[in-house]
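ingest -> validate -> predict -> emit
validate: passed (alphabet ok, no gaps, 549 aa)
predict: started
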Amino acid sequence: MSRNLKNRELLRGIRVEQALACCGSCWDSSTPTGGEYETSEVVDELDDFLSHDWATGRWSKYLTLCLHYNGVAASWMSALSVLICGILVHLWELNEEELQGPCTHEWVAGGDSVTFHVGYAPWFTAFGGIVFIVVFTLWQHIRRLLGRKPRFVFVDKYCIHQTDEVLKMEGVLSLAGFLQKTNRLVILWSARYFTRLWCAYEVAGWVYLDRDVRETVDLLPVEVAAGVFFMTISTCVVVAIGDFWCQGNYTESDGIVSRVSFALVYAASAFWIVRLYHWMEILPEQLDNFSIEDSQCACCTMGHVHPDKPGKKIPCDRDLVVATLMHWEGEMPQHDMSQDMITSFVSKAGDAKQTALKEFNEFMQTTVRSAFISNPLRVRYRYAITIHLCMLFYFCAFAATLRGHWLPKLRILTLLASEILFVAPVYLKINIELLFWLAQRPIGNIVVKQILGVVCVTLVLQLVAIPHIWLVNYMLDWENPTLQIVVMLIEGFTCMKLYTFDNPNDVGVSREEENFTEPVADQTMSANMSTVRSLRSAHTRRLATQPLS
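emit:
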């Protein structure tokens, strides 16, 4: 396997919309259905290399890719659509009957009262949720209709021929060349990822090419996307149904029911958050004990016999990887050998083979470990805003029908804005911290922790909500807005301390090396990379700089 692509026709990619087509049907199985290779296109470079294992479920990968490629657009488009509706409603003067109807309520701020009409709120929330789902799933197709430049990604089943044995071998042997011609490595990470031979090779190959992992790798835990999508849609549904239910007859008991329903959505997140923490606990152990000899690959699982053609032998992928490692170290003089020649060479390599395996294992246990060990204690801020889009939709409906003096209107609107931008993300952070704390406790298996998480989150959020609601009412009762301004500043400062804004390339669950890894993780990684570079022979460095033929 070479980092030099001798044939430009081998470098192929598919558009992101193809990877997401038919609800991600291409992720169903690694078995080709025919014609996949023909749908890929010859490219000069790849935007992303999608690294994954085929045992992870189709829907998990699909939602992860939708969140990664479409999530920001879905949030902006849904918010913009509802905002436009709010402007139109505001310009459309409500008649006297609507202003005095049962859906009109009064809110007092600083001694002055303002009125607002709640009849539009459920419609705004439902409409915003529908727009979010449409853009979340179809944004890449919309980009194509708008004439935007397509993004090309590498998916093994499409970009390496699956039926022509000659083309398949050429593609497999050129995998390192594909990595060299790729801008970013996108990892669809699950608990079994680093137990797979090809997954480990792709990550090691990326680091070995001197790529800055923190700048060029998107580590996407597949559990995060499912949780974000579930919470976003669930909160919209809960708020819309609650608003429909309470229209014209809002009572204090309805407010309690609404808060409990919202808390139950948070509580349901306990199932995926606790499992995610369990996965992240496995990762350091996997890398500490990594062994290429023990890593899994499909060919060995099937006993090197073709599943659809009994009696037909299939080559061992492990020999290809070992041959690659030896080639990188200059121990394999010819890199364009046939599969049989590679198998024969590896079987007779002896000490050179054992040295290559030992160095690769150490490379995974040190350099790759330092680059990928992460602490899942911080969720990205934009994901927190996405989860609470329902509040933004409600805010637009509220602002569109708000009538009264400008000062109390301004105080109420700024209060609601701070709830969306600061308070809701802090609530989510409390939820995450509580569940991670619970996951660390030795109190039974993961199922017990998930059930306890549901109960604890529901109770704690109610305990937090009650004093917060009292504080909001107390602030609005004051004629002087000084207290409100001070509280908003405290909320904003707290939110900024809890979330990270410094790295736009943070993954779905952000890294926090200072808490989880050794204090000298960066120095260790630099030292390991220097060691790796010193191991390269002049022959290997020459291959890395050769142009395409």
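The beta strands are 12-15, 41-42, 46-51, 104-109, 112-117, 152-154, 182-189, 217-221.
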